[in-house]
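Re: the 266-residue chain
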Amino acid sequence: MSAVLLTAVAVTLAGCSTGGSGQGTTAAAGGDTSLSSVQKAGTLTVGTEGTYRPFSFHGEGSGPLTGFDVEVAQAVAAKLGVKAKFEETQWDGIFAGLEAGRFDVIANQVSITPERTAKYEFSTPYTYSSGVIVVKSDNTSITSFATLAGKTSAQSLTSNWNTLATESGANVQAVEGWAQSVALVEQGRVDATVNDRLTYLDYKKQTGAAGLKVAATTEDQSESAFAFAKGSTKLAGAVDKALAELTSDGTLATISDKYFGADVSQ
């Protein structure tokens, strides 16, 4: 969504905002009441998709909202002494909803980027990930991204992982997504697939990923965090403190293990 359209949507939604504690307007008015408003309401209103497994989704399709991000948000809210209330919205409108005050924070694997930090406040990261090459367990020819050159890798052409595979010299076989790409690797029809480590860990947790292994990992990591309206520094600071406590007492590691079989929180 372009910056101009994002602003236009935010202005439109501001007049009919319900649910959030209103920090988007109070911060702009000169006083940061982001934390006190949440405390007064007794509720941390969280924007999330609800269709993004394993981070934010409905169990069995129509069950209660659950997921890694959902549980982390609930744990943070508990540390703040309030309850988490979730407002499900499509990704295309989630930042507009934040700016309009429909919710206090976004919990939806929001990657920290320079463009976003210029517009929003962020907590400390609660998820770290990297790119990985997934191959069959008996594959000994691929041990790094350099050795991917000349090999066949199944990739979605619209993914940034396709770019990485191509730049590494792989011959790309186009697929629709992860499910198809990993199936081709398992069947031995391609040599590898490049994707996000979290995607692989989720697949391994769900299926066991028998016969597969990670052959190489990127040095660069992506960081995901809670996003707040610009100026909501007090609420962001309180969430940072909560995340530090949840790291120290092992809660984040426990939630991570539940969904990924590994600690992805640090």
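The first strand starts at residue 43 and ends at 48.
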